[in-house]
Amino acid sequence: MGLLRNAKIWGILGVESRGKAITLHGGYPSMALTDVQIRKAAAKERPFKLFDEDGLYLLITPNGLKNWRLRYWYRGKEKLLSLGGYPTTTLREARDKRFEARKLLSNGVNPSQNRQAMIAATVSREANSFEVVAREWFSVYFPGKAESHTSKVERMFITDLFPWLGGKPIF
Q: What is the DSSP string of 73-92?
């Protein structure tokens, strides 16, 4: 049995248990998670992990929160990526996110840095959107104007321009 703990031997033998493939976690075999196992998992005194496959696990904290995490290695260092909380992020969605992260890793991209870059780009795009710039211009240009004119122009911006151009970036 000691020899069978070796991951290479498990892979060569293609060992299965009740029709489901067995994966290794810390050298010991375990089966993929099911939704029933996740729903039945109750909080304990200390945080604990329910492992799925390929580094995906569910961290269950003492206060009952269930968070998906992905453990991966990038350039020889272990990294951790949060994939969302359960039940907001289902088991299927967590596995899909793991697949996308693994695809990025196979292309030499760190998934964590990629996510940070995407967030920064979104924030930058939103900060320079037509709506933000128009509201800034409106607050500077219209304080001394008649109230009736100010309300007409503001209503025109809100009803006619912002739905079409509001999210567009201004360079």
A: EETTEEEEEEEEEETTS-HH
CB-CB contact of 47 with 64 (8 Å)? no
| Half-sphere exposure (Cβ direction) of 17: Cα atoms closer than 13 Å | 8
pTM, to two decimals = 0.59
Q: Which amino acid is at 171?
A: F
How many whole angstroms separate alpha carbon 140 and alpha carbon 122?
26
**Residue 18, both tokens:** 């009740």
Residue 30 confidence class, pLDDT cut points 50, 70, 90: low
- 143 backbone dihedrals φ, ψ, rounded to 5°: -60, -30
Q: Compute the distance between CA of residue 86 and CA of residue 58 in angstroms, rounded to an integer.
A: 8
DSSP state of 63: T
**Mean pLDDT value of segment 42-60:** 90
> What's the whole-number mean pLDDT along residues 22-44?
71
pLDDT at 78 over 80: yes
